[in-house]
Amino acid sequence: MPEAAERKPAQPAPEPAPLAAVPPLPPRPLAQPLTQPLADAADSGHFTIPNAITLARLCAVPAAVWLMLQGRLDLAFWVFVAAGVSDGLDGWLARIRNTRSTLGAILDPIADKALLVSVYVTLAAIGVLPDWLAILVVFRDLLIVGGVLLLYVLGQPPQIRPLMISKLNTLLQIALAAGSLLLAGYGMGEAAILDVMILAVAASTFASGAAYVVQAARRPA
H-type helices in 73-219, by residue range? Predict the structure, then answer.
């Protein structure tokens, strides 16, 4: 018999092809906290409730001026008080509803200054406050605004940080405006109190204006 053919060694079994990598699932977005107000979605953009309150306070300026010119200082006092309450309300709502906006940051100080300056100028015009005090208050604000605009034109935008003396001055100005409207509107003859408040407002207004000038002068070129 012919010699049996030499057997070939058995071929190893082919390795199984590796499984295709399964791409990981995208992470699930975190759920919004239940405490988030549902109305926040409606308060996007510039049309927010705090901004509407600020606009209403700005619109109260001509109403207050008209009431003072008509001799209704009692009603003007309550308009002024309502405007002050709205100033705190819009800021509080903007914080808790997270609806701060650039428009609100611009309108809020404009509304505050427009109301204060208008009240001081009108009260001076009808003889409740001295003319020189209204001129001092207006000049101080013009000095600060003009200085800020000048620095912007020179390419040196200022970092506006309210000074402590400026906060005190604003508080005293508000107190004097409200006190003048209250005393004159309801016929309370307390001239001594007004005289002291007038001197306090004049001193703080001058000091805060000078402080801003010194701060701007120390600014590096």
Answer: 73-96, 102-125, 131-153, 164-185, 191-217
